[in-house]
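Quick start: what a row looks like.
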Amino acid sequence: MFECVKEYLSDLKPKHDLKKVIILVGINGTGKTTSAAKLGGLFSGGGESVSLVAADTYRAAAVEQLRIWSERLNLHLTAKDESSDPASVAYDGVESGISKGERIIVDTAGRLHTSTNLMNELEKIHRVISKVTDKISTLMVIDGNIGKNSLAQLEQFNKYLNIDGIIITKLDGTAKGGIALTAISDFEIPVYFIGVGEGSDDLVEFNASDYIDSILGTDEE
């Protein structure tokens, strides 16, 4: 039975590589900013030139956090003050990064899926970036501790944006992140990465077989 589940998940793994521009979205507190930095480190470690874009202009701490990460990982950063329009910051960052042939990761502000104005703003960010390039992948960052509530979030975000994939964070503690199974099967949206710690190397590619073993407690000693 377990092997059948593994085979099923494997069939739903990402069918394509992430595109040149990656937009991270999600509600507050899921770890988007940290995930943006870790993702940048992952691509940089693979030999790509990476630019982070601090489009969370509501939270000064988010910009500073991304600045610290960019310096630590030797990544480029586009950032403005917190009063700036997030869509404008995203446009400038993507335009600059594309001209340099960089991989670009856009960090956006956390927002409740029930806030129409904020969701419309997110749609605007995607729209203005689309004027620069159509090579965009949108990843939703989900807290592995939330459980079924994240499904409602995913459903609503997907109505405003075409969510291409998922990052599940905070799987380093007791959270098993079983929500991935439902997200993948019900929405047919693949999980690309999982966060398993606070370090720069603690964002790892999702592996269906290892994931099932972890949930079912069938890891080999």
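That is the whole record. The beta strands are 21-25, 50-55, 76-78, 103-108, 136-143, 165-169, 191-195, 203-205. The two ends are 21 Å apart (CA to CA).
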